[in-house]
Amino acid sequence: QVQVVESGGGLVQAGGSLRLSCTVSGLHSPAMGWFRQSPGKEREAVGCISATGAAPYYSDSVKGRFTVSKDKSGNTLSLQMNSVTLEDTAMYYCAVGTIWQWYRLRDPKEYNYWGQGTQVTVSS
């Protein structure tokens, strides 16, 4: 049985940093990604890594500020969020799937398993 467990959300001041983690059990080194969703908006990919661990995908809105990385086991994905802004406030979800091609990473429909989400709130 596949389980996806997220941690690390919370309240952070604008300009600060926060780190999210996601651990999956029941699969070996799958593709993993962080998505976020705000009220009234579609779910968008933030940072994702394929099953091969090749170059990550980042949305334009977080490039240069956020970094995704996997641990050596390939089953834990971290999202380091730096220089956060009010626009980063959202529910963040970890997603897991069998994805090899980079161009597919940004599509939430490509992922088979999702965590329950962790709230990130940026204050001014």
Short description:
With 124 residues, this protein is mostly beta strands.
Question: Care to describe what's here?
Answer:
The protein has 124 residues and is mainly beta. 0% of the residues lie in helices and 48% in strands. The protein is built from no helices and 11 strands. The strands form 2 sheets. Strands 2, 4, 5, 6, 9, 10 and 11 form a 7-stranded mixed beta sheet that branches. A 4-stranded antiparallel beta sheet has the order 1-3-8-7, with no helix packed on it.
What are its keywords?
single chain, 7-stranded mixed beta sheet, 124 residues, 0% helix
The Cα radius of gyration reads 13 Å
| Percent of residues in helices | under 10%
Total DSSP E strands: 11
- Report the order of strands and helices: EEEEEEEEEEE
Sheet-strand content, in percent, reads over 45%
Instruction: Please tally the helical runs, counting DSSP H or I stretches of 4 or more residues.
Output: 0
Largest sheet: 7 strands, mixed
Can you tell me the residue ranges where pLDDT is under 50 for at least 5 consecutive residues? Answer: none
Report how far the terminal alpha carbons are from each other: 41 Å
Q: Assign the structural class, choosing from mainly alpha, mainly beta, alpha/beta, alpha+beta, or little secondary structure.
A: mainly beta
Apparent shape: globular
- The whole-number mean of residue pLDDT values reads 95
